[in-house]
Design a protein that fits this description.
By secondary structure, this protein is α+β, with helices and mostly antiparallel strands. It is built from 6 helices and 21 strands. Strand 19 and strand 20 form a beta hairpin. Helix 3 packs antiparallel against helix 4. It is elongated.
Length: about 375
């Protein structure tokens, strides 16, 4: 046989063996434990961490209300304190208002005139049917009655605006007793967020007394550096730091803050939570769903060599050195992609010793 052909064949076999050896670390069972290697499973995940940012917990505007005095008066009693949970319709405060007396008097006067008009209205209606009165007189009676009905409704609505309930107005019409006491009622079931008046204080019309909110839904307002905005989209997930609370991005702002060069993003917390508070400032991480298989591994499982990242996958003879791409980090863990499959055994500790052995700085024998 030609000696040159033999040499070439041997060289090719040697090159293939070396190339395979470069990606394989052979370790005997006896020395496996001596390297301090700990095995773990590759964990499949679906979210890629994009960035961390500060955020503020806020109440949706539609769920926040200010209870104010519709009439000027003297506050005689406050029934709720900051942090109290109140039900819709609960009396939050009581005050005395002279203006309320005038409004009640005008309402009772309009009610009396309407009741008298109703008598004439029914009488003329019957006379018209009997042909006793002319049609013109019936039209005048009807117009006057409708005008008085509108006036009574107007004064009733003014009392409602002033803070009287339908039950209180009905009681006023029944008893004809004027009262200067005005009650301020909770417009929703919620929590008292702020008290803006004190008992014994004389306040003007529309002066705020309480601020309350429904805390069943909370938002996160997130300041995103404008250069990072391009990678975000509606529907991205938000993880609140050091909790299991998540939120979903539902708004990406259209303007940049001139001072901070950040864009406001908003996320809705996915469920009612008692561990976050309105006004609280927190740190969050935004993640995005991945269409490709990705995995979560401890940072200690990743070895670096010549600017590239590798993990060590367990095989029958030792470990297979597998290149990976690090696409995100979450604290002490990294999100990676590569030619991997779920539940493969990898070295999650001892990667430094395996790297030394791989590069010829140590020995497995």
């Amino acid at each position: 046989m030609n000696i040159k052909l033999i040499v070439c064949a041997l060289s090719a076999l040697l090159f293939c063996s070396l190339a395979q050896a470069e990606n394989t670390i052979k370790i005997s069972e006896q020395l496996f434990g001596n390297l301090g290697v700990t095995l773990g499973k590759l964990e499949t995940v679906t979210q890629i961490p994009l960035l961390t940012a500060p955020a503020k917990v806020v109440v949706p505007p539609a769920q926040e209300f200010v209870v104010s005095a519709s009439q000027a008066g003297l506050i005689t009693k406050l029934n709720a304190a900051i942090g109290d949970k109140v039900k819709k319709g609960a009396v939050l405060a009581e005050l005395n208002s002279s203006d309320l007396l005038s409004m009640q008097r005008l309402y009772l006067k309009a009610l009396s005139e309407l009741q008298l008009s109703a008598v004439f209205y029914q009488r003329d209606k019957k006379l018209l049917q009997e042909g006793v009165i002319a049609d013109r007189r019936w039209q005048e009676t009807q117009a006057q009655h409708e005008a008085l009905l509108s006036e009574a409704n107007e004064h009733k609505q003014l009392l409602q605006i002033a803070g009287m309930t339908d039950g209180e107005i009905a009681q006023l019409g029944k008893t004809r007793r004027l009262s200067s006491q005005l009650s301020l009622h909770a417009p929703i079931t919620g929590v008292i967020m702020e008290r803006m008046a004190v008992a014994g204080e004389r306040i003007g019309s529309l002066a705020p007394v309480y601020r309350l909110a429904n805390l069943d839904e909370l938002w996160l307002e997130i300041n995103i550096p404008q250069e990072r905005l391009a990678g975000l989209k509606i529907g991205d997930q938000v993880q609140i730091e050091n909790t299991d609370i998540t939120a979903t991005v539902n708004l990406l702002g259209q303007n940049v803050n001139a001072e901070s060069q950040t864009v406001l993003a908003r996320a809705v917390i996915n469920s009612k939570q008692s561990t976050v508070r309105a006004g609280q400032r927190i740190n969050i991480q935004i993640t995005q769903a991945s269409d490709l298989p990705i995995f979560k591994v401890p940072n200690a499982a990743i070895a670096q060599n010549e600017g590239k990242s590798f993990i060590f996958v367990r095989d029958k003879t030792g470990f297979l050195v597998t290149p990976v791409s690090v696409i995100g980090k979450q604290g002490e863990e990294s999100i990676i992609s590569g030619e991997l499959s779920a539940n493969q055994d990898i070295a999650i500790q001892g990667a430094v010793a395996l790297k030394a052995n791989w590069l010829g700085l140590g020995s497995a024998e």
